[in-house]
Amino acid sequence: QRETHLQYEQMGSDAILRCGSVDQDAAVTWAVNGTDIENPHLNGSFLVLHNVNLSHSGLYSCFQGSSSKLLHQTNLRVGNPPREPVLMCRSNNYPASFYCSWHLPFPTFIPNSFNISVMHDSKQLYCEKDPFPKNRCHIKYSRLFSTQKYQVTVVATNALGKNSTTISFDEFSIVKPDPPENVVAKLVHNNPRRLEVTWQIPSSWPDPDSFPLKFFLRYRPLILDQWQHVELSEGTSHTITDAYAGKEYIIQVAAKDYEIGTWSDWSVAAYATPWTEEPKYITTESQKTETTTRITTTTTTTYVALSSTKDCDPASVRGS
Amino acid sequence: LARTSIQKSYDLTKYLEHQLRSLAGPYLNYLGPPFNDPDFNPPRAGGPETIPSASVDFHLWRNLNDGLRLAENHRAYSLLLCYLRSIDEEVARTELRRSLGRFCTSLQGLVVSIAGVMSSLGYQPPQELVTSSPPTAMGFGRGNDFLRKMEDFWLLKELQIWLWRSAKDFNRLKRKVPSVVAFRVESRGL
Hints:
The structure holds 2 protein chains of 2 kinds.
Chain A: E1 5-10, E2 15-17, E3 28-32, E4 35-36, E5 42-43, E6 46-49, E7 58-64, E8 70-79, E9 86-93, E10 97-103, E11 113-120, E12 123-125, E13 128-129, E14 136-140, E15 143-144, E16 150-158, E17 161-169, E18 181-188, E19 191-200, E20 213-221, E21 228-232, E22 237-240, E23 249-257, E24 270-272, E25 281-282, H1 285-292, E26 302-303, H2 314-318
Parallel strand pairs in A: 1-8
Antiparallel strand pairs in A: 2-6, 3-4, 3-7, 5-6, 7-8, 9-10, 10-14, 11-12, 11-16, 13-14, 16-17, 18-19, 19-22, 20-21, 20-23, 23-24, 25-26
Chain B: H1 2-31, E1 56-57, H2 58-62, H3 66-90, H4 94-120, H5 145-187
């Protein structure tokens, strides 16, 4: 099995492929992915590719003279060196740990490797890589309430180059809980302007007793764009008392540690429509007589929504 | 009673945090560069030992008993108050000195409040630090001008963190207090 040489070239550059250890002035022919290259640009036995791009990637083979004797193969991979990686750290389960994740802002089209280092108080901390997603690792808070900043550096390396990003942050600034869970909104019987909303602390938040969360609730009728907001410092439920009667509402909740960090993203939305009075069945005398003159004997029924505040006065129902 | 005094101490930490937020910026500017540079991040190890560090091992902190938890707060704020009073006298700028004075008064209130919580939970409050003794006797304010400014820098940083830590301490105590008080009453056979 002939060994295939792997060669990386940067997009836009000129690539020179050698036919193994064959003399430069030897006569050879070239093929790519099994297809002969029509009038290749040769420099002796070297194949020259100008201003390479992704389509140039492939398996290049060179043969002796015009025979089919294979002399050498090169797997050409065209790509780019890594740009500065984007690095972000966050704690959604403070004070247990925080995680850092990184990605490259632009694809390189060739394999990259990443190395991350975390420093705190002049000590290097271990960053346990997650099996998935790969570009993430976790760091346990060994000490709390530190005045020292954390410094995290990620270095991205591939065959065409290397680049790195370093961020530093306080222990508290990266605390951002996950959104509240199981947000439920219900109507309140006999009350057309109320909705009862309940939710749960995010399950990822480990110690709500010592690190209580406060909540931010936003709601609006679907027919409007303007949100209404209310901040809640205790408990995991709230009653909306100013809902528009009969309008369907969208409700979301966010969470934040009492003292530190930033608000979570908004929760999954809950929907509910306030209670509305059931329409009452009203059968009037005049309609009965009118109906009997017809051939059919069915009783016509008029739906009259009685306003719930006025007592039902027969005279007003029959009309003047 | 215990729960009320814990809530009061908690509220005091929030109020102090609010005061500190408006005090820290002007004071760091008063210290001047590099201390007022947001990216200034000197190693704490080289910093003054005299200023109590709020940093604590996570498991240690979680498993502190209530008495120790409160005593650590009391000791820290007593020391920080002593240091603050030493600054208060040196600051040339009147407005800054006035803000520092108000902050010291509030901080004194917190020290007293913590002692009150300890008493209400049946713990013996620590001896009140004699804050009238000269700061240098307490190890503060020695060295050149830069080192003294470094001390002030760490003082402000630690104060902020202590206030966060205390808030979390009081949260913990608030949740535990009903059972603690009952236990203490039973254990005395009352």
